[in-house]
Write a structure and sequence with these properties.
The protein is an all-alpha fold. The protein is built from nine helices and two strands. Helix 1 runs antiparallel to helix 2. The mean pLDDT is 83.
């Protein structure tokens, strides 16, 4: 468990840093034009910063010992917490007494929910859904990996195309063996002077070819899906 002063200091720094980032990003934006979610987050950060300090009088009034009435239900919950702590002894420094585990649960909730800007504004149902929605986290992780693979593949293909164009001759004179190489069209000067077709303009050949390619790829994906669903058995239909 973290020391309260240490955690308080690190959390204040993180909140102030986030606040400064948002203020800098929208420093030229009129208050009325600022996105509602940004306003809400800035107000929330200010509220958290105001709540960090507690009045000494509040602490003085509190008893030094907190009594929690035990019951069969409470004991069941405590034993489950203890089982978890025993599987993760580093979390409580190998201590499993009731006071230690109750303090750990309180500290964990405050540090990761009550003072975490990503969780503190969620209501109970939203928080429970976020904690239990492991499948979406796996999907996000898979999507991140796929995007990374796409990025790497596009970089590789661009590099290969650039290098290939450097070695494709424009003219070959068969009588004297003279080879003339053109300037690689993938260069800033060529783009500035002549531009380049993109798949976004439906009137050029590249866009039309790209559209046809997407149709073929879509059919192939359906075919592969059907192939796996039928255990590798496909008929002519």
């Amino acid at each position: 468990m973290k020391d309260a002063i240490e955690f308080k200091s690190s959390q204040i720094k993180a909140l102030i840093k986030r606040k400064n980032i948002l203020n800098k990003k929208y420093d030229t934006t009129f208050p009325d034009d600022m996105p509602l979610e940004v306003k809400s987050e800035l107000d929330f950060i200010d509220k958290l910063l105001q709540e960090f300090d507690i009045d000494e009088a509040i602490f003085a009034k509190q008893g030094k010992t907190i009594n929690i009435k035990n019951s069969r239900d409470e004991e069941w919950y405590f034993q489950q917490m203890k089982h978890w702590a025993e599987r993760h002894p580093k979390a409580t420094n190998g201590q499993f007494g009731k006071s230690t585990l109750y303090k750990f649960a309180l500290h964990f909730f405050v540090e990761n929910i009550a003072l975490n800007a990503n969780n503190a504004r969620l209501n109970f149902s939203e928080l429970a859904q976020k904690v239990n929605d492991v499948s979406s986290q796996k999907s996000d992780s898979k999507l991140t990996a796929q995007l990374s693979n796409v990025e790497n593949l596009l970089g590789f293909l661009l590099t290969m195309q650039h290098r290939q164009l450097e070695y494709i001759p424009e003219v070959i004179n068969l009588e004297n063996g003279f080879v003339k190489y053109a300037i690689n069209p993938i260069n800033p000067t060529e783009f500035q002077q002549f531009g380049a077709p993109t798949e976004l303009n439906p009137n050029n050949e590249l866009a039309q070819s790209y559209d046809e390619y997407k149709k073929i790829r879509s059919r192939d994906k359906q075919l592969i899906k059907k192939y796996h669903q039928t255990g590798g058995q496909l008929n002519d239909n």
